[in-house]
Design brief:
- This is DUF1684 domain-containing protein.
- With 191 residues, the chain is mostly beta strands.
- It has a domain at 47-178.
- It has one helix at 7-27, and strands spanning 54-71, 77-90, 100-109, 117-121, 135-139, 150-154.
- The longest helix has 21 residues, at 7-27.
- It is globular.
- The termini are far apart.
C-alpha cells in the first residue's frame, strides 16, 4: 500500500477533528461531561500528533467469527464477534524503544450491522497517561475486508470512552488479547 499523505495536511485535519470534538464535549446536550462540569471544561488532553503512529495493518479475516465476551465498566458482559486480526509494525526513531510487529483484534457487535470495526486496546500508557479502562479506535474500511487487505490504523485517533467522564455510561473493556506490550503515545490522553 503506497502512502502519499501530505503530513502537514494530515496534521491540520487531525487538529480540526480535535477542536470539533472539544466543542461537542463543551456544548452538546449529549456530551459525556456532566452538565455541572461543562463550564470548567477547557478541552480534552491529547498526545502531540505523531505520524509514526499512523500505521498500515494487514488483515487476517475470520470467515466464521468467534464470539468474544467483553467485560464492561458496569460489571456486565457484551457479546462481540472477532472479525479480523490486524498485524502492523511500529518503527520509532527513539533509540530506547524497540521496533516490533504487533497484533490487535477487530470486533463487531454480534447482531448483524454495518458498524465500523471496533478496536479497543490497552498499552503501556494505560492508567498513567491514558484512561485506566483503555482506549478505542473505530475503523471503517471502504469495503468488506479480505485476507491480506491493508488498512490504515491511526493511533492518533485513539479516544477515551465516555465512561471515563461519567458513570452513566457502560463501556466494554479491552480483552487481554488487545493489551499491547508497548507504549502508544498517540491520541487522547487522560490523567
Amino acid at each position: 500500500m503506497t502512502d502519499t499523505v501530505d503530513v502537514e495536511q494530515w496534521c491540520d485535519e487531525l487538529e480540526s477533528k480535535r477542536a470539533e470534538k472539544d466543542e461537542f464535549f463543551a456544548d452538546h446536550p449529549q456530551s459525556p461531561i456532566p452538565p455541572e462540569e461543562r463550564d470548567e471544561f477547557d478541552g480534552l488532553e491529547y498526545f502531540e500528533p505523531d505520524f509514526d503512529y499512523r500505521v498500515h495493518a494487514t488483515a487476517t479475516v475470520h470467515d466464521d467469527p468467534e464470539v468474544v465476551l467483553m467485560d464492561t465498566t458496569a460489571g456486565r458482559e457484551m457479546r462481540y464477534l472477532r472479525v479480523a486480526i490486524l498485524e502492523f509494525d511500529l518503527e520509532r526513531e527513539d533509540e530506547d524503544l524497540e521496533d516490533g510487529t504487533y497484533e490487535l483484534a477487530a470486533y463487531q457487535l454480534e447482531s448483524p450491522n454495518e458498524e465500523p470495526l471496533f478496536v479497543p486496546f490497552r498499552d503501556k500508557t494505560t492508567g498513567q497517561q491514558s484512561y485506566e479502562g483503555g482506549r478505542y479506535m473505530e475503523l471503517a474500511p471502504d469495503r468488506d475486508l479480505a485476507d491480506g487487505d491493508e488498512l490504515v490504523v491511526d493511533f492518533n485517533l485513539a479516544y477515551t470512552p465516555f465512561c471515563a467522564y461519567s458513570e452513566t455510561f457502560d463501556c466494554p473493556l479491552p480483552p487481554e488479547e488487545n493489551w499491547l506490550e508497548v507504549a502508544i503515545p498517540a491520541g487522547e490522553r487522560f490523567e
